[in-house]
Amino acid sequence: xxxxxxxALRFVNPDGVAIDSIALGYTQPIGDWQYLPVxxxxxxxxxxxxxxxxxxxxEAMDYGLGVQVLMQKxxxxxxxxx
Length: 82
Known about the structure:
The protein has a domain at 1-49. 33% of the residues lie in helices and 10% in strands. It contains two helices and three strands; from the N terminus they run βββαα. The chain has helices spanning 35-42, 63-81; strands at 2-3, 9-12, 18-19.
């Protein structure tokens, strides 16, 4: 990771190649991070402290339930294409 002159962060692969983030509709990375909230607002995306909140209380993962839900989604998708 590199810190650029304007304080922005640039992530770099171990081989030295920069990893740039390209937003939809753009051919170059958006340079000003302060522009992102404006663009989000234009698209109806409203991020607040509760956006990434989880209801997880520390209980163990139920892998069986997780696999069952994924299998149901796959089956539903196959029926949609039938």
